[in-house]
Amino acid sequence: MAIIQKLLTLVRGTATEAGQSIVDANALKILDQEIRDADTALTASRTDLTRLMAERHIAADKLTAKKAKLQEYNDYIQQLINKNDTELATEVAGKVAELENDIAADTSTIAGMDTNVAKLSGSIRQAQSTIEQLKRQVDTVKATASVQRAQEAIASQATGSNVKLRTAMDSLDRIKDQQALKSAQIDAANELQAQAGDGDLQQRLQAAGVLPGATAANDVLARFKKTDG
């Protein structure tokens, strides 16, 4: 059981390592997708902000209308009191009380909307700034990666060229060695041929001065002796 547990742990560790290698190899692609996802979320946030601002505008218009109606009812109450129409004035006063409650609730709602609009606007600005900064950094990272790939290619080509040059020099040295060996073989063959035939004899006859047109060392000395006599 312990062995099986260790094997399962090994499999999980290997899978994690392989997964991390895949993530590292595709880091830029993943980062690009994450930025696209952030852009999508930012667009949705802008849509939410637009809807919230529209709702706030509608609520504000309704509040303005209620305040105008409230002022109108207040005027009616004053006129009815002046006419001693207490019953109708009381009925209008009920409408005024209802409007005042609605106005208070609407004012609170609009204040909450204003707070949410401010917060959401700030979050959107921060997110936009962060995304733009990320995009600039990604552009820098991509440019650096491109330069590094070019440098690796150049380094690889230079290494390959050096290897080829070393191979060419080795080939040249081998050719020179082969040529030197061939030359030595030819000289040895000529020497053997001279020894096998009359080449050595001809050389000794030449040195002795007996060959036609040949001059020996003794002949040269004899000429000097005659001159002295």
Compact description:
By secondary structure, the protein is mainly α.
Quickly list its features.
mainly alpha, Helix Hairpins, 229 residues, single chain, 5 helices
CATH topology name of the domain at 30-145: Helix Hairpins
User: Low-confidence runs (pLDDT<50, min 5 residues)?
Assistant: none
H/E series: HHHHH
Number of helices: 5
How much β-strand is present in the residues?
A: under 5%
Number of E strands: 0
- Gyration radius over CA: 55 Å
Text of the CATH class of the domain at 30-145: Mainly Alpha
- Arithmetic mean of pLDDT: 78
Fraction of residues in H or I helices: over 70%
Can you name the CATH architecture of the domain at 30-145? Orthogonal Bundle
Please give the largest β-sheet: none
The SS-based structural class is mainly alpha
The N- and C-terminal alpha carbons lie at a distance of: 125 Å
So what's the overall shape? Answer: rod-shaped
Characterization of this structure:
The protein has a domain at 30-145: Helix Hairpins (Orthogonal Bundle). The chain is built from five helices and no strands. It has helices at 2-25, 27-82, 86-196, 199-208, 217-228. The termini are far apart. The model has no long low-confidence stretch (mean pLDDT 78).
Topology:
Blueprint: H1 2-25, H2 27-82, H3 86-196, H4 199-208, H5 217-228
Helix pairs in contact: 2-3
